[in-house]
């Protein structure tokens, strides 16, 4: 017991989330406390911008895996075919400009900083820029919509690494927006794209039967099956394919349902995978898109619409693996093919990203957050053990509960 002269206890529970703002530090699933952020951190994968950059970039991407240089050179020819320039950096410049334009149109004073995980400008450069400007509270947008090690946790690990490299732990706090796979702003471009793609098929092949002669292939990046199985919070119990596959399937169903409104028939669809890079002995998600295309003629399919559901922009995996390899495979199988655009700087996508930031700025209640599937709205603060990489183990990560 204390009397009036005894100071009240000032004990504060230790932070459960590393380098988070106070609103997120105790790890709530959704942060419903308003946060006055200083800037937006646009975080991307990065890519080479010249022939001399290609191998150093690929070494950055594969660091710690012991991949021989001859294998890297095999992958490098994709970039070399485009002059050694990945389209991703220019796409992020365009996205940054589009975000800034949308912020200005809404009268929101939030600067946008841009940093990459694997190439210049690096995340650490963006944090140095933030520090020099006096920004201490950042809200990160990772340019990846789904839950997995490579599409979410690795970003969070790289935020932590960048703080360590710059010595800005304790100076800068970083939260992130929720994974936005089922946010209307991300899904809308695919709905528009699929509707346009089907119209293009019908124009090019008059009289084609959508229900029996057209197949929709929703494609995303293949990942190791072990990573997929562990994607999302362990307690959700998604099973084989984890949250990664479940999220893609749920969004595909939403897209098909939206495009089907008012139509008397719709094509069949399947989820396929692409851009595998692991050894043949390691199980990765299947079927590969090219294998799937090869099986379509036997079912009487005459046209295929390819929907790059797992991608936010037309980077190398889209330009090479879809516009080159998959398109050639379709032609070799006498199939008419259409590739639907990625969100890129689609107006609804850009607006949606700003809406996601404002959820955190305003502390929007969970019930008021839009999501088009029963899986969401996804977590603001990633849950403990989320998206484990069994080969690398748990490394320090921001915007989530340990480990």
Automatic annotation (TrEMBL):
A Pfam family it matches: Ferrochelatase
Sorted UniProt keywords: Cytoplasm, Heme biosynthesis, Iron, Lyase, Metal-binding, Porphyrin biosynthesis
Signal peptide: none
Binding locations of Fe-coproporphyrin III: 86, 155
Localization in the cell: Cytoplasm
GO cellular component term of the entry, any: cytoplasm
Chief site of localization: cytoplasm
CDD domains per record: Ferrochelatase_C, Ferrochelatase_N
InterPro entries, per the entry: Ferrochelatase (IPR001015), Ferrochelatase_C (IPR033644), Ferrochelatase_N (IPR033659)
UniProt key word NADP: no
Enzyme Commission designation: 4.99.1.9
Pathway noted in the entry: Porphyrin-containing compound metabolism; protoheme biosynthesis
Annotated catalysed reactions: Fe-coproporphyrin III + 2 H(+) = coproporphyrin III + Fe(2+)
First-tier enzyme category under EC: lyase
Key word Iron present: yes
Protein's GO biological process: heme biosynthetic process
Superkingdom of origin organism: Bacteria
Record GO terms (molecular function): ferrochelatase activity; metal ion binding
Amino acids binding Fe(2+): 221, 317
Functional description taken from the UniProt entry: Involved in coproporphyrin-dependent heme b biosynthesis. Catalyzes the insertion of ferrous iron into coproporphyrin III to form Fe-coproporphyrin III.
Family per record: Belongs to the ferrochelatase family.
Protein name: Coproporphyrin III ferrochelatase
